Structures are given as C-alpha cells and as structure tokens.
Amino acid sequence: MAEAAATAGAGGSGTRSGSKQSTNPADNYHLARRRTLQVVVSSLLTEAGFESAEKASVETLTEMLQSYISEIGRSAKSYCEHTARTQPTLSDIVVTLVEMGFNVDTLPAYAKRSQRMVITAPPVTNQPVTPKALTAGQNRPHPPHIPSHFPEFPDPHTYIKTPTYREPVSDYQVLREKAASQRRDVERALTRFMAKTGETQSLFKDDVSTFPLIAARPFTIPYLTALLPSELEMQQMEETDSSEQDEQTDTENLALHISMEDSGAEKENTSVLQQNPSLSGSRNGEENIIDNPYLRPVKKPKIRRKKPDTF
Amino acid sequence: MPLTGVEPARMNRKKGDKGFESPRPYKLTHQVVCINNINFQRKSVVGFVELTVFPTVANLNRIKLNSKQCRIYRVRINDLEAAFIYNDPTLEVCHSESKQRNLNYFSNAYAAAVSAVDPDAGNGELCIKVPSELWKHVDELKVLKIHINFSLDQPKGGLHFVVPSVEGSMAERGAHVFSCGYQNSTRFWFPCVDSYSELCTWKLEFTVDAAMVAVSNGDLVETVYTHDMRKKTFHYMLTIPTAASNISLAIGPFEILVDPYMHEVTHFCLPQLLPLLKHTTSYLHEVFEFYEEILTCRYPYSCFKTVFIDEAYVEVAAYASMSIFSTNLLHSAMIIDETPLTRRCLAQSLAQQFFGCFISRMSWSDEWVLKGISGYIYGLWMKKTFGVNEYRHWIKEELDRIVAYELKTGGVLLHPIFGGGKEKDNPASHLHFSIKHPHTLSWEYYTMFQCKAHLVMRLIENRISMEFMLQVFNKLLSLASTASSQKFQSHMWSQMLVSTSGFLKSISNVSGKDIQPLIKQWVDQSGVVKFYGSFAFNRKRNVLELEIKQDYTSPGTQKYVGPLKVTVQELDGSFNHTLQIEENSLKHDIPCHSKSRRNKKKKIPLMNGEEVDMDLSAMDADSPLLWIRIDPDMSVLRKVEFEQADFMWQYQLRYERDVVAQQESILALEKFPTPASRLALTDILEQEQCFYRVRMSACFCLAKIANSMVSTWTGPPAMKSLFTRMFCCKSCPNIVKTNNFMSFQSYFLQKTMPVAMALLRDVHNLCPKEVLTFILDLIKYNDNRKNKFSDNYYRAEMIDALANSVTPAVSVNNEVRTLDNLNPDVRLILEEITRFLNMEKLLPSYRHTITVSCLRAIRVLQKNGHVPSDPALFKSYAEYGHFVDIRIAALEAVVDYTKVDRSYEELQWLLNMIQDDPVPYVRHKILNMLTKNPPFTKNMESPLCNEALVDQLWKLMNSGTSHDWRLRCGAVDLYFTLFGLSRPSCLPLPELGLVLNLKEKKAVLNPTIIPEAVAVNQEAANNPSSHPQLVGFQNPFSSSQDEEEIDMDTVHDSQAFISHHLNMLERPSTPGLSKYRPASSRSALIPQHSTGCDSTPTTKPQWSLELARKGTGKEQSPLEMGMHPVASAPLSVFTKESTASKHSDHHHHHHHEHKKKKKKHKHKHKHKHKHDSKEKDKEPFTFSSPASGRSIRSPSLSD
Predict the structure, then answer these.
(1) Contact at 8 Å (CB) between A226 and B883?
(2) Which of B755, B787, B988 lies closest to B857, judged by CA?
(3) pLDDT (tens digit, 9 = 90+) per residue, B810-846?
(4) pLDDT at residue A143 greater than cutoff 60
(5) Which among B447, B285, B427, B287 has a CA at the least distance from the CA of B351?
(6) Contact A205 B870 (CB under 8 A)
(7) Is the Cβ pair A252, B838 closer than 8 Å?
(8) What pLDDT shows up at residue A288?
(9) Rounded to an integer, what distance in angstroms lies between the CA atom of residue B1178 and that of residue B97?
(10) Mean pLDDT of B90-104
C-alpha cells in the first residue's frame, strides 16, 4: 500500500511538474482523470502483490487501462446510437464487453473480492467548457418534424453564410490606398533585395544602406531595353486592348492591323489618328504580290562573272 | 550610260546655261563606287571608285578630287597609271610649335585650309596628274575614266561602325555601319567630287555578308551571291544625277519592311525592332501624299528607303532616295510624347528629299534656298497635321529662337557673298568662325541658319501668296525632273541646281512681284529687328498715338523700314492698320472707331468674327481700347517689346483667339502679379478649348505670379484645386484618378501642372509642404494598369516636379552633408528617386526617361547642398553602353559639376571622352554642353584655366577633330567661350614684354625670332609681278606672310582664289613636266611631281614654290623649302595690302577690336605685339600638311 502510494506519489509529482507547464482548465481535468487512473493501477498492482513498480510500467498500464475504458465507452455509444438512442444503457455495455471478449459473468464476483482496495473518490473537477468556436449568429431551432432530442443545428455560418460585422472594404479610397501601398512595398522590397544582392552605388559616402542604388551596368545593345516595351507593358497593353475595344477611335496601337486594301486602291486621306483596323485579314494574301527588290531572291553568281579587280 | 556620242564642244563650261559655271575644269558624268570588302571586326573597307570625267578645258593636266582618311593605293586614268598627290591641310590646321593660341588666327587658317580643298573652289585633297600620253586625248576633250583603288581603316568620321561586343556572328550581334557626317562628308569614305554642285549618275556596289543588307541610293538592281555563297553583292543604280554629297550607305542585319501602302518604299531597322518599325512608319504614306499634293509633283525617285540605325550622327539625315534615322525614333503604340516628334522627323527628311537631295545647290551661299524651302513645306505639313495653332506656335518659337540667337551673337547671314574682295568688312566679323564654308560653321549657327531660312521663306510667302510660292517650287521641280531625265546633257543637269538668283528669278516670273527689298533685308543682310512700342490714347481726337522705336545699333539688329501691321481691338471690333515705318517717324496716329462709351449688353466682335460678352469693368473708362498687337502675323523677323496696361494683357489672354497673342500676354503678365492676372490665367487653364500649349505655359506663369504675390495669396496653393478638380477622384480629392491618357490635351496638362506647382515658394522661400505632399501623393497613387498608354513620361515629369521643389539646404557652418542631417522632406524625395531609379533597372521605361529625370534630380539635390556633391554616379551612367539619353543626362551633370566644383579632374575626364568616345553624337554633345555651361569664361579667373588646358584644346581643334567637321567647330566654339578670340589670358607672356611699333620690331627682335624676318621679307616678295608664279598648289592660304596680313579679305576671296588655281592649271611649258613618275606609293608631295606651273626656270621642285623666298636672302630650313606652298593671296589684295599700313592695328580693326574703347585698345595693342612676335616664331612650320597622317617633314621631302 505504502509503495503504491509512493509510486502514485511519484506519478503525481510527475504530473505536477507537467501541470506547471499547462494551466489550461481542460488540461487540468484530463490530468486529474489520469491521476485517478494511476492510483487505480497502483492499487491493483498492490493487490496483485507487487511491492514496487517502475514508473514506466505504471504509465504503460495506465495507458492500457485508459484505452480499454475508452474503447468500452466508444463501443457502447455506437451500440446505443445503432439502436437510435442517445444514452447508452446497461445492455449496451454488456454487449460491448461481450464483444470485447470479456466474460461478463465474472464481473460481479470480481467486484466482491475480498482483498480489494478502496480508493478515495477522485476530486471533483469541472468538466471543461468547450469554448464556442464562433458565436456567429443564432442557431436555428429545429423545425417541427425533427424531434427535439436531435442535436442542434450547427452554427449557421458553417452552412448558410458568414455574417461579418465590418463592411467589406469597397471604399474606393481605401482600395486605392491599399493598392498603392502594396505596390510600393513590393517595389521597395524587391529593389532593396536587388540592391542587397548586387553591386550598389550610394549618394552618401558614410552610408551605403539607406538609399542603396543598384549600380548602373552598361548594356551591349542599349537601345533594345530602351525602346522595346517591357513584358509588363506588353501584357498591360493586351489587357487594355481587349477591355477597351470600343474606345478605339485612337489608333496609336493599330499599327499591327494595317490594312492593305487602302494602299492598293487610292490611298484615302485617313486622318492621322484614324485608320481602319478591320481590314487586317487581307494582309498576308497580298504580300506575295509585292514586287520589292529587297524581297526578290538573291541570284546565284554567274559562272564567268567579271569580278571587279582587286589588288 | 551612253557616254559616247557627246560632242565635247558642247560641254564647254563657258556655255553652261543659267549662269552656272562649274568651278572645276571638267565635268563628272558618272561614278562607280564599289566596296567589295567590309570587315566589321577590323572596321575596314576596301573598294574602288571609277569616275567618268569630261575635260572642259583643253589643257587639263591635273584633276583634283576630294578624299579624306582613305588610303589610296593606285590611280589609273584610262588604264594608265597616274601620279597623284594627297594633301589635306585640314588635318592639322596650324603647324605650330608656337604658343600663340590665338583663335582669330586659327579661324582664318582653318577657313583657308578648308578653302584649299573646297571642291566648289575647284580644289581637292587628292590631285591627280593626267599622264602625258593622254594629253592629246584631253585636248580633244575626250572622256577620262579615273579608277582609284582605296581602303579605309578604322574611319573616325564619314562611316560609323557599330559593333556590339557580344557573342555571335556580326549579323547576330546587330553590327552595322552607315555613312554619316555634316554637309559634304562623302569624301570621308570614298574619293569623289564632294560638292553639291557636281551631279552625275551612279552605280553602287556593295559586297556584304550574306546575312546583311546593304542599303544605298537609287534602285536595287539585283543581289548576287559571291562564288563561295557566303557573301552577296548589292547592285544599285542611281540614274537621277546626284551629287556625291548625297550618296549614303547603311549595312547591317536589317529587318526589312515593305511599306504596306507604298510598295516602292522600304523600311529597315535593326533586329528585334520590327514591331516598332511597323508602327513608326505606318504614317509615312500620308506625308508622301501631302508633299506630292502641294508640290503637284511626284516624288522624284523611283523608290525610297528609311533606315533606322543606332549611334546616329544626327536624328535625321536625308540622302538621295534614302534617309537615315536614329533608331531611337522608333516607338510603340503606347508612347505618346515621341509620336509627334518622330513624325516630324519623317516629314522633315521627306521634305529634304525634294529640296536638298533631288534639287541640289550651286554653291554654299545658296544653301538657304534649299533649307528654306524644305523647312517651309515641312511647316505646311505641320499646319495640316497638327493644326494651325501648333503651326503658329512653332513659328513663334522658331522666331524667338532666331531672334535670341542673333541678338546674342550678332546675326545670321543667309546669303553670304564673298565676291570681289573689295569689301573691307567680312560679312561675319562678329563671329569667331568663318561663314564662307559649311565646314567652318558652328553647329548652333547652322541650326539657326536653317531656322531663319524657313522663316524667310514664310515671309516671301506672305508677300507673294502661298499659291505663287507653290508654283515656284513646282517650277523648280519640273525643270529639274525634265533635266534629270535627259540622258546625258551635262549642262542640262545644272537645272537641278538651285541658286539664289535663279530662285528669285522664278519668283518674279511667277508672281510678277518684286521681292528684292525683302531679300535685301533678310537674306543679304544679317540681323533682326527690335521694336519697342508704347501708346497713349488721345480722348479728344479719339486717336491712338502709337510710338514705335527701334534699336538698330545693338549687335544682331538691323533697321526696318516698310510696312508694319498693327491690330487694335476696340469695343466695336478689331481693326488692322498698316503703318509705314520710316526713318524718322516714331509716332503713328491711329484713329479709333469706337467711342469709349460702354454699350451695355452689346457683344464685342473679335477678329475672327466671333462675338463675345466681356466683363468690361476692368478697363479704363475713357478708352475704347481692349488690346493692341504689333505685327500679329509675324511678318517681320523681330522682337517686340510692347507696353500696355495689365488689364489689356488680361483681355488679350482671355479673348484674343490667336495662340501667339495668348502666349505673348502670358509672358507679359509675369510682370503683373495681381489677383486679376491670377484669375485670367486660372480661367485659361480651365478652358478646354484653349490650346494646350498655352495652358501649359499659363501654369508656369501662374506659379511665378503666385510667388510674387506670396504674402497676399489666399486659398490653397495655385493650381492645386484646379488639378484636383480635373484629375482627382470626386470622392477622395487627394487621390488622383487612375491614368487615362486618351485625351492628349489633358495628358499634357496633367504632366505639366505638378511641375509648375513645384516651383511655388512660401514666404520663407521654401516649397510649401502641402505641395510636396501633393506631388508625393500623385506618385504614390499613380496607377497605370488600365491605361493603354505608357506613363513613363508622366512619371518622369513627376520626378522633375520633385526636383523643382528642392530649395537650397540651410547649411550650418558648412558641415559635411551626411545622412543624419538630411532634411526630412529631402529624405522623402530621395526615397522616391531611389525607388524609381532602382525600378528602372528591373522594368526599364521607354528611352529610360525615368532614369534621365532621376539623374537630373540627383544633381539638383547635390547642387542645393542636400547630398554631397559627387560626380562618381554620373560618370558611371555616362559610360559607353548606356542608352544615349542617359549618357547625355549624366554628362550634363558632370559638366555642371565641373563648373560648380571647378574640378580639373572631371574636365580632363570630359575632354578625354570628347576624344575617345565611340559615339560621335556624344562627343559633339559634350562639347556643346561645355560651351553652354562653361567651367569658366574668358573674363573669369579660374584655377582650371591654365596653359595645359589651352594646349589640349588647341590640339583638339587643330588636329584632334579633323575627322568630323561638326566636332571641330564645336571645339572652336568651346575655345571661344573659354578664351575668347585673342590669346588666352592664362598663357605666359611671350618673352619680350616690350611695347613697340611694328616698325621698330625688327630692331628689338632677339635671335630666336629670326624666322619672322623671313616672313616679312617674304611677304614683300609677294608683290604683284611675281604673283602668278607663286601660286600655291595645295595650300593657298597665307602661311608665310605676317599674321597681320591674314585678313578675311585674303582668305575669303574665293574668286581670286579660283583664278589662281585656274592659272595653275595651264599646261606648263617646261619639259620637266613629262617627268611625272608613276605613283609608286601613296606618299604625298614627292618633289618630282611638282613641275608646277612656274615658268621661271628653277631647279627646285616647284610645288613648294619656295621661289618666293629667294629674294629674302635668308636661310631657309629644308623643311620650309620643301613644304611651303606660297601664299596665294589674290593679286588685288596684295596690291592693296602692300600699301596698307603694317601696323598691327590694321588687323585689329578688321577683326574684333574695333568696338573697344581707346584705352583698352591701347592695352590690347601692346599685347598684340607680343603675339606677333610669338606668331612669327612658328611661321616656317605653318604649312606642313601631312597627307594621310604622314608628316611632311619626312626626310624624303627635305632633299
């Protein structure tokens, strides 16, 4: 008995040290349960004649016991639900035990065994309150055809909608503000990153990090980057093109749709800013007919072509 | 070419029609240019030319051609080897060890050197002897075929190679080469008669890598592979007679685009740029249509080519049937700002195709006609394309430019006449360069010359009407095209040359009007008119008393006599009056039509017939005058300063419909910072119908007015609420709308307004915090995602606005600028600049406009003391390999730094770049910027001004820039700005500080100046009687005479000069002639060649003509004997000069001193003597003219 108490005490101290870490009420509840189980295991061991036990084995046994009891509970609940009840009855337990291969008949005798130890009732601990996940909206009451014992409907946000108390940001100003600062942040982060990873120049001799300038690097063909629109711009242009098709009185970007028909016939005096974009289809067809000396095939050299004299 | 069957007799130049007499004793009819090898790696070119030439004088024994840089291997005439001499005095203008460094001297010598090779004076660098076997042939005036083999190695001018240093074949690397240069520069890449007046037909052949395309003038006849199939030869034929100076070439791996509207037009661009090319050229056909319509004449050539190349010499260069453009003119459809600029370039080049390429000029002094006509029809195109407002605005701008330039420098002369040698006054004595040749002109002068030319054409139009004007053009063109289709009638071809007199004759024939006074005023004379006007209203007589004064004594001005239009807007309407401006009448009485009574509710009629309601409360109750304008049509090249009351200017701004009037009133209102002016400007700003450029300038005026009114200003900063209303969101006024640039007018306004706002200052002379925050917000909320146009120019202007807001830092005892003491506002600005500049590296903007603005802004911060002044950043951006706009911006900052910090190191760095940079445009631009923003000027003490710098610059203009006319003239400009015309003040005084009369000079000369005595004596020897024998061959200019005798008279006297050379051409009677030795080498000046024309027996080679010095009895150095071409001053001048006083005053008077006061004069005079003695030191060396880079002093020459 004393030994058992000792082990129980040891276990208790162990859990105590654990409890230092967590002071959560739910944890406390579970720890108290477990402590009770350990006391049970210890007393059973004492009954069985052990004088002492290693902590690890007590733990293992506790674990086994807990699993066993849990399984009984779970199974019993299944049986009860199987028969469309919500509360398990004794028979459910019995069936369970039978199912688990336990000889139920031995139970009363075991309960009345003489050498059994009586342990004190576990301290009353409050069932932890499961925090309400979201107290969003009112749960719906059951409609009349659903018996009242059925579980309540879940919170409406889980299956109907989520009411939020703040208006979604549809305010133009805020959006612009957000877009602007987001872009700015991205740009700054990006350029800072580039500056950090590459060579930099600085306007201040004493400080090279506050305003780091990415070092100027000459290009081999500088006009290409300077003249060709960047990919971003190209993409943008395509987007705006499709979205603003109706606005295209302006032809700045219609170069690609030059009409060939205008040229063949008398060139009409289209104004600077108005060309007809619709005739672009005919282009390829006519290009073959164009007689331009630069499009002609290159001739093979004549066999006896008189070469200009060299020296 | 049917060269045969032409009767030689008909080609006698004496019979030349329409007064065109070729200065050359032969007529070129056809030229073949064949370049059969182009090596991009080594940047070399090998080829030959063949000129078909008909002599026009029986005794032609020498043929002079132009050639620079070319290495000439061999010359054959009709398959006979011919001796030749190559001498280019422009390689090194002054051959001096002297420390003289006098720009006046240099300019004269340079003009003389250019004359000495000027094809229009019958000269050339290359002189070929006609082999004696052919003399008989020549006497019969039969055809000569001159075949010249040449090569070109690493040309520094004329042909420009662009070879990017990346991996791959030349074609893959985008390597290309093109011809470039200013005026007649064709001689830089093949031997030719580099004159606009020598027309001939052409056959051009270029063998290039198979992956490349050679674009040249005329029709591409065929393209043929070479035998190894690795190269191909482009054969071009140009059957329209064309001057060599209009021949061009571009070779590169070009992408080819046949114009979809006009299949005979082909466009070329560098790889990858095809989409841009398509967009950029899609407009060209409309320009064609326009010109053909107004000129009622087809485009003269059978094809047209545009080539867009990198590292362009100039943005636009027009040549016969092709134009070479800078590739930076290409743009995509998203670019707004560049579009009109590029279109203008296209239109300009096309106008020059008609006038400049197809129609060429007789002589340099006729250049103004070509530039004038092409500029004028280009203006008509502008009017049609961009509207009358834009056109008038442009005319006004051009007028202001020319007026400012002429007032600053003292005049631009369109039609310089150098005849006779009688006039004492050099037509351009106020300038530091000669205007006798295009190659001696300052680039800025030439730009202004073109500007004035087209303005004068417009004046002619005003006089004779546009209809007649166009008829004249049509006549010129149809005459020319008739002439061009003539098979070979050389004298007909001169119809394709325009001359001033021919043009004027056409005008009088067509219009029947006499425009002689106009021509005399604006063409034969330089200067503009400066009017001062004021008025008073005489209520009793109901008369407007207008007083118009002129200033015609300041430099660059002239007196105007003749009609002048004045427009008076009265209550009852607008009335035009034509006043006669006469000698002594200053006051003009103009009767008014309306009484001063106010007709309530009555609308006021404007000039254009519109009737408007006006609030008349502001005006003077006694006067019916609303506003007065002098010369509203800009029919005089003038500047008008007119005084009228502020309310009149305000009425003019609000109600006058002419943009020029609005612009003028905006300028005037700057002086009237009143609430009424503010209101008028604000109203204009808001008025959408108003021309956008007027609104833009109203922004800046408003900023100025606000600053003047700062203590009384009420309400938010100027323009802020306006901008908010126009461009910001209704719901949140601090946030700008997302960009939508569909309306260009508001786009330009949106760009400009913040820039102007940033100029606002509060009472502490700081930019108001509110404004800075506003601009920063504009940048922050800028959102271009929904815009179909690029916002790069807009963002660039926002940075400009930030820069404008910067004010000088408050500095406590000159502390060093560090980050810690950075002003918080500046910190914000710097943050934006850093971010923008860094983003450019990742997402570059079109033409890197943002980088350019950032660099400028950084320089502003440096200059204002917020950031330590340091050129390192700019220098890194100025390196070769950055986009040219960036480089120029960075260089500008370095130039500015050089000036502000007086940094010798940076100045050296810039000078090195001028010498070594691969891009000619950048070299030119640095000189230009240094001239505009000089580190010091002639009257300034500066540590930078030292002897080494003088030497360096002298070297630069003397010999370092001989490959590029424009660059050399730029160097001359810089030298002038830094040191002035006379001897730079920082040079040590010459050894003798004596004050002497010239006559006494000899007595005190120390032994080191002996050559001077020689010179003097020699000059004496140049007496008229010996003159004919003294004709210099290669170098007609003064050389040997005393510097004092180098007078513009002598060096400018082209007439006499020509006669010299004609003299020289007479067949020598001495048997020595036949000793011509076949040119065994390309070396120049081999004595044997020089039998010369001297009839005096002499054992010495005569090319050197040292004969002149025989009489001196002095010893001469062998060098001098060998090399010295005698001064070829014309006879008439000599006669005159010999009687003239030798006093050095003489010199001064002619050149630059005559306006100085006596006192100063004396001082100068003293100074001058020192110069003289110095100058004389070097005279013996003045004339060594190395040919193809070889020094004359090579030993072979001295024996």
Answers:
(1) yes
(2) B755
(3) 766 566 677 777 889 999 999 999 999 999 998 999 9
(4) yes
(5) B287
(6) yes
(7) no
(8) 54
(9) 6
(10) 79
Q: What's the confidence (pLDDT) of residue A241?
A: 54
Bigger pLDDT: B540 vs B346: B346
Report the candidate in B871, B852, B798 with the shortest Cα–Cα distance to residue B829. Answer: B798
Q: What is the largest CA-CA distance in chain B?
A: 101
pLDDT range class, residue A303, cuts 50, 70, 90 = low
Q: Which CATH class is domain B531-636?
A: mainly beta
A155-164, B725-734, B750-759, B1123-1132: segment of lowest average pLDDT: B1123-1132
**B410 vs A243, B427, B525, CA distance in Å?**
58, 11, 11
Nearest to B309 by CA among B879, B919, B882: B919
Q: How much is the mean pLDDT over chain B?
A: 81
**B815 touching A, CB under 8 A?**
no
Using CA atoms, how far apart are residues B828 and B830, in angstroms rounded to an integer?
Answer: 5
- Three-class DSSP category at B336: coil
* DSSP annotation of B590: E
**Would you tell me the crossing angle of helices B443-464 and B466-485 to the nearest 10 degrees?**
110
Query: Among all chains, which residue has been given the structure tokens 């295209």?
Result: A248
pLDDT at A144 over 90: no
- Of A204, A216, A253, Cβ closest to residue B868: A204
Long-range contacts of the stretch B791-795 (C-beta < 8 A, 24+): B791/B739, B791/B741, B792/B335, B792/B845, B792/B846, B792/B847, B792/B849, B792/B850, B793/B335, B793/B336, B793/B337, B793/B751, B793/B846, B793/B849, B794/B739, B794/B741, B794/B747, B794/B750, B794/B751, B795/B836, B795/B845, B795/B849, B795/B850
Quick check: B428 pLDDT over 80? no
CATH architecture under which domain B259-358 falls? Orthogonal Bundle (1.10)
User: Could you check whether B259-358 and B367-419+426-523 share the same CATH topology?
Assistant: yes
* Residue owning tokens 């027996």: B1097
Q: What is the pLDDT of residues B18-47, one digit of tens each?
A: 457 788 899 999 999 999 999 999 999 999
**Helix then strand then coil, % of chain A, to nearest 5:** 50, 0, 50
Per residue in B998-1020, pLDDT (tens digit) is 444 443 333 333 333 333 344 33
Report the C-alpha gap between B975 and B934 in whole angstroms. Answer: 10
Sort out which chain A residues have CB atoms less than 8 A from B278's CB and list them.
Answer: 255-256, 258
Look at B328 and A227 and tell me if their CB atoms are within 8 Å.
yes
Domain spanning A26-109 has what CATH number? Answer: 1.10.20.10
Span B275-281, average pLDDT: 95
What was the ipTM of the complex prediction? 0.76
- Contact check, Cβ <8 Å, A301/B226: yes
How far apart are the C-alpha atoms of B906 and B697, rounded to whole Å?
36
Say which CATH topology domain B367-419+426-523 has: Neutral Protease; domain 2 (1.10.390)
CATH no. of B22-88+125-253 = 2.60.40.1730
Helix residue spans in B1045-1182 (DSSP H): 1048-1052, 1054-1065, 1118-1123, 1131-1139, 1144-1151, 1158-1178
A-chain residues near B226 (CB < 8 A): 301
Integer Cα distance of B714 and B845 in angstroms? 39
Across the range A74-99, mean pLDDT stands at 90
Domain ranges of chain A: 26-109, 173-230
> With contacts defined as CB-CB under 8 Å, which chain B residues touch A169?
none
* Each residue's pLDDT tens digit, A25-43: 777 778 888 888 898 999 8
CB pair distance less than 8 Å for B882 and A180:
no
Give the residue among B268, B385, B343, B290 at the shortest CA–CA distance from A267. B290
pLDDT at B1126: 38
For residue range B471-494, list pLDDT tens digits in order. Answer: 999 999 999 999 888 876 557 888
Cβ–Cβ < 8 Å for B1066, B1093 = yes
Any idea where the domains of chain B sit in the sequence? 22-88+125-253, 259-358, 367-419+426-523, 531-636, 743-868
